[in-house]
Recover the amino acids of this structure.
């Protein structure tokens, strides 16, 4: 299958900062593709090149004909974009704002108004259509931006930090909406920091650091390629000092998700029984659960401050 977007050996610098360095990846039709990385990894620069705000210094970004509509660049009527920063006119009403974005992307005014009203109802904003944008909370403003990105029925949508300002309930609502759009045939590229949400919905992902790709593929592929398979989650007393676990034989990493729990990642050749024996000699364990390493744990181990690819660049 031909990719809807192919990024080939792309580089971009700003004065002395190499924001993106020889980056290549592709996005396939009908998938949710997640672009991840720590602050300063170059994600926002990549997103802005995709939506034609920046131009690359070298390399190539090529869209399929289903997005270019016969031209050389992506047709904005076939794309949607939710920017990381608020991109709304603060003194305009909610409905007028959405109508404006719909018309800007090729919709008739009546169609834009009808779709906007339905979208507002779906996101519990039906009674706010006459309110000014600046009368809305940050979370509700984000809902408006989300609706604007999908209002015109695009084939490819780029979402830059879509969960910003949202409470957990509305974050999950966005996850469900993004999945639904994917199932309807829309291709979605998103950049986000909420690893648990990305893990729920991404078909494939790319982790960047220092402008380069450091991990790429499905989550299962990444687990296999990084030999990150086994993780033990242990119940412990809240006053336990878990620092001692980091130096035990067979332990690759330690993360404490809660005061009464600790997640221990095992080294590639470690045996679970032997590692557990070392752990129980060091701390009191009340329960044990074995599971695959989460995306968050893989991310921290790969690009965290103690990793060999710790960030130095700035977006």
């Amino acid at each position: 299958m031909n990719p809807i977007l192919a990024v080939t050996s792309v580089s971009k610098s700003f004065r002395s900062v190499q924001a993106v360095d020889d980056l290549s990846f592709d996005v396939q039709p009908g998938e949710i593709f997640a672009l991840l990385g720590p602050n300063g990894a170059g994600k926002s620069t990549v997103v802005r090149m995709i939506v034609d705000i920046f131009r690359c210094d070298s390399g190539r970004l090529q869209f399929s004909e289903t997005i270019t509509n016969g031209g050389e660049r992506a047709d904005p009527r076939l794309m949607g974009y939710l920017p990381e920063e608020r991109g709304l006119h603060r003194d305009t009403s909610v409905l007028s704002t959405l109508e404006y974005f719909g018309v800007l992307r090729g919709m008739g005014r009546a169609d834009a108004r009808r779709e906007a009203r339905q979208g507002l109802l779906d996101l519990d904003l039906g009674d706010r259509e006459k309110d000014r944008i600046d009368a809305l909370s940050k979370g509700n403003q984000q809902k408006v931006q989300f609706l604007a990105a999908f209002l015109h029925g695009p084939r490819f949508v780029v979402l830059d930090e879509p969960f910003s300002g949202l409470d957990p309930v509305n974050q999950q609502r966005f996850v469900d909406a993004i999945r639904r759009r994917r199932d309807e045939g829309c291709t979605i590229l998103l950049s986000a920091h909420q690893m648990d949400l990305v893990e729920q919905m991404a078909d494939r992902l790319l982790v960047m650091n220092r402008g380069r790709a450091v991990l790429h593929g499905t989550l299962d592929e990444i687990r296999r390629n990084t030999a990150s398979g086994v993780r033990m989650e242990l119940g412990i007393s809240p006053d336990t000092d878990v620092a001692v676990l980091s130096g035990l034989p067979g332990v690759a990493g330690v993360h404490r998700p809660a005061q009464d729990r600790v997640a221990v990642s095992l080294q590639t050749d470690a045996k679970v029984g032997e590692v557990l024996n070392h752990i129980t000699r060091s701390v009191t364990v009340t329960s044990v659960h074995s599971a695959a390493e989460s995306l968050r744990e893989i991310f921290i181990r790969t690009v965290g401050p103690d990793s060999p690819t710790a960030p130095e660049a700035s977006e």
